[in-house]
Amino acid sequence: MVLGPFLMLGLTVGITYVSSRSNASSQNIAVIAKTPTLRQNFIAENPSNIDKQITTVSAAKQALHQNHLAGYLVLTQTDQRLQADYHGPKALSKGLKAQVQNYLAQTQQVKNYQQAKLTAKQQRLLQRTPKLTQHIAASTGTANLAKTISFWLIVTMIYIILVTYASITAQEIASDKGTKIMEIIFSSTTAVSYFVGKICGILLVILTQIAIYLLGGWAIYSWALSRPHLHAMWTQYHALVTAILHNLLNLNLLYLLVGVILFTLVAAYSGAVVAKAEDASKAAQPVVMLGMVGFFATFPFQNNLDALPVKIMSYVPFLSSYFMPMRIINGTVSLGTQLISLGLALLTIAALAGYIGRKYQHLMLQTDSHSVWQHLLKRR
Amino acid sequence: MLSIQHIRKRFDDVLALNDVSFDVANGQILGLIGQNGAGKSTTFHSILNFITYDGQITWQGHAFTAQDFNHIGYLPEERSLMTKLTIEQQIVYLARLKGQKARDIRPQIDDWLARFAVKGTRKSKIGSLSKGNQQKVQLICTLIHRPDLLILDEPFSGLDPVNADLLKQAILDAKQRGAAIIFSSHDMENVTELCDQLVMLRTGNVVLHGTLQDVRNQFGKTELFVTTDWSTDRLAALPGVASVTVRQPGQYRLHLTAADAGPAIFQELTQGHYIEEFSQQPPTLDEIFRLKVGEPHA
């Protein structure tokens, strides 16, 4: 379970690599020209997706027949006019078509200038083109993208961990229900100690999983940094990755942990209140539903993180695990507000642990015939 | 000493325990008998604080503290262990819950396994053991921390005679070192053999309480065992004889209407006759049990 994401990542990368390798040759085109410089210049300007081995039409036709080529381009020059003929089962891709047109236009222009015998000044004037400049604040663009990615990462991570462990916790506790081993345990230690110990054990498993993910992420990140062929991509996305890491590795991790504790407590209670151990599989349903409510409730607000409902729900325990990280990522919430929300969540944890701990023994030993609502309404 | 005073427990409309009181001194064994549903397990659950109750339960003169639970050995009626653990892991886990140190328990495990003739090693998985061997491991878990109070709910259930003897010896050893022991059983022979006193529950009420001899004497010496050449009909016609049962040819068991009928019957049987056996005794615990169960409810 813990290694699942890494296996998925490895499989995805592996399959993509193998797939791209197998498709690469059949996506190439051959470039053929009687004038060698014409071919060489084209390949020099457009090196990707070109099969450099094929230099004749007959070889290209054979490769095309064997499905090793996407097509071939024949470049010819007659009476100072360039012509390109593309042969293939499908039309040229838009990108390659633009590259071919660009190359032909530039080469033709050079030849036109040579034939027109223009002065250097005239050539410069004819080369003058209008200028379009886009003024995009690079930092803002990166920050917005980082927020979006961070939002989805944190919300998805919280949801997956909550649902997975809520389910495991509820089922494990429900399967213990009514067993005599619980009598032996409760004849040895207090229910509160056992309950808190059980929750701590589950949390340690969760923390181990998170730690493995962090270490795994760090290892992949370090590996990627050391790959020369990924250097260009790293340079391009360095600011984005740094911003995402900054968004994730702050108080949000604490929210993740607090959320997990809250949901685990309720999951444990759900497991303990089922009528019989055979109902263990149903035990997690209320907690999973609660987790889903929080998860899906965030969707409408992903582009409106300052909305009033987001502010309200960022204080409500259970929902705050989703909504406060959103506000923290958005950078529009003060530390004091974060601490108040965190305090409310911690108070809820203490209250829940105390309440469930007191009821735990009777629920697990099935010596209590009162329903949840009877417990809530009755003073004992 | 374990002292139970006026315990009362109600489950909704059912009065499970009604004013139950008894004491178990250190170094003493108390047998708790009664039909299914009489309140034996409820009594144990009250002592272990699994359920709330009215009344008072004290241990060594005070209410149970969390620390006191470290000195209890409890064997529930149905056996249950963690089947994925090894024998060693299971024993150490439960002993540590009792405040024991793993390093003190581990060296004892092999001796205990040998003592109960468990077929398996300390590294054997609980799940791989037979039901009987799992039961023995559970007994070891109950005893290994040398508890001062032993609570055994139907400990002989499912044990063959050889293993039952091993358990009896373990119980007597615990008694020898001063542990207070309370156990329930449907096997009156075990109760007779082991118990210093017994309590019989019937629908939550104590209907018998005392030493075995006291309890038997309450019923008077109404059982007469004779070996004679008299016929059954002739024996049945004797004054004070309620019924006659043939034990073996020539061996009879006479149930008397009153204990004082014995001397007159002796006179009749021995006039000019030699008889090999004449023994007047109180009823056995098994008979008392049946008698009390058959009595109409108060």
TrEMBL record, chain B:
Pfam families: ABC_tran, DrrA1-3_C. GO terms for molecular function: ATP binding; ATP hydrolysis activity. InterPro entries: AAA+_ATPase (IPR003593), ABC_transporter-like_ATP-bd (IPR003439), ABC_transporter-like_CS (IPR017871), ABC_Transporter_VariousFunc (IPR051782), DrrA1/2-like_C (IPR025302), P-loop_NTPase (IPR027417). The keyword Nucleotide-binding applies. Keywords: ATP-binding, Nucleotide-binding, Transport. Residues 2-228 form the ABC transporter domain. This is ABC-type uncharacterized transport system, ATPase component.
